[in-house]
Request: fold
Amino acid sequence: MKLLTKTSIYYTLFLIPILLISATFFYFFTLHEVGESSENLLSDRVDVIKEYLKENDTISVYTLQENKELNIKEISIGKTIPNTFSDTLIYSTSKKVYIANKVLKTSFVLNDKNYSITVWKSTIEIYELIEVIFYTFLILIILSLLISIYINSRISKRIWQPFWLTLEQLKRFRVTNNNVGEFEKTEIIEFNELNQSVSQMMNKMIVDFNNQKKFSENASHELQTPLAIIKSKVELLLQSENLKENDVHTLLSIDDSLVRLNRINKALLLLSKIENRQFIASSIVPVNEIIKNKISLNEEFLNNKKINLVFHSNSELSFQMNPELSYVLVNNLLQNAIRHNYEGGIINIEIKDKSLLISNSGSKKSLDINKIFNRFEKESIHTNSIGLGLSICKEIAEVSNLKLAYTFENDLHIFSIKQSSIDSLK
Reply:
C-alpha cells in the first residue's frame, strides 16, 4: 500500500467519527433547543390565557378554543395540576391524520373557581424543520469529508514529492555505474537532510564496492601465477625416475589439490565478475544450440558414467542475456546433473512452456532448497564438486533476469530456468 493511500485512510478513519459525533451533537442540541422553545411558547400562551380570564376577555378565549389550541374546563376546588409538558398525537380532522403536538397542562384559580387549562401546539413544522436542517448538515458533512480528503491528498502529494523523487533516484542507482547523481533541492529541511545522508551513503557504497572489486580481482589474479608455478613444479617432479611409490602418490594428491584450488579460484573470480556486473552486454541467445553444444562437449563424461541423456524440444527457446554467461549457466547445470548422477543414470533435458528443464537421477531424497544455491554447500560427498557451480548459476540467473528453481519429483532432481519479467524470445 502506498504511503499516500495509507495516510488518506488514517485521515478518513479519524475524520469520520469526529464528523459523526459533531452531527449527532448538533442534532440533539437543535432538538433540545427547539423543544425548550416550544415549552416557553406554551408557557407564554398560558400566561396570556390567564390574563384573558382575569380580564374576563371571553372573546379571545373563545377564539383560541375555536382554533382548537386551548381547552379550559372548571374543576373542583383544591385540585391542583402542576405545569406538565408532554408529547402526544392529536387527530387532525382537516388532514385526516394524527399529528405530533407539544402539550402543556396546568390549573388556575380565579374568583373561587378552579380551571384546568390545556394548551397545545403542533410540532410537525418544527420536526420538518429539524429534518431539513439534519439532512442539510449531513450533506455538508459528506461534502466537507470529500473536500478534506481531496485537499489532504493534494497537499500530501505536494509535500511528499521530494521523497518520491529521492526514492525514484534510489531505484535507478547502480553501484557499478559509479554515479550518484544530483538530488533536487527542496524547501523542506528534513528532505534535504535525507538527500544529503543518502548521497553520502551511496558515495561510500561506490568507494567500498570499487575497493572490494579491485581486491577480489587482484587476489584471484595473483593466486593464478603461484598456482601455475606449483603445478608445473609438481608435474616436473612426477617425471622424475627416482621417485618412490609413496612420493608419487603424494605428488598426485598435491596435483589434485592444485587442480581443485585452481578451479575454486577461477570460480570465485567468475562469481566476483558476475556480482560486479562485468557481464553487461546481452543479446538474444539460442538455448537449443547451447544445449546441443554442451552435450557434445560433455559426451566423454556421459559415456564414462553410462548416463542415458534425452533431449526433447518441440520449440526454439531464447533468453535475453549475456552469451558468455549463458554457456556457463547451461554447462554448470549439465555438469551438476552428470556429477551427482550414478552410473547408468538418466538425464532429461526438455524445453517446455518457454522454460528449460534439466532433470537427473541421483540421490533418492530431495535436496534442501534453502541451501543448494549457497556457496560451498555440498550435500553429496562427491570430491570433484567444489560447491560453487549452483551458486554461479544462481548469480547468473539474478543478473540475467531469469528465474532458477529446483523441485524433486519422481526421484528426479529438476532444475528449471525461465525468463522472469520478459517473455522468453522465440
Remarks:
- The mean pLDDT is 84.
- The two ends are 36 Å apart (CA to CA).
- The CA atoms of residues 242 and 248 lie 10 Å apart.
- The first helix runs from residue 3 to 54.
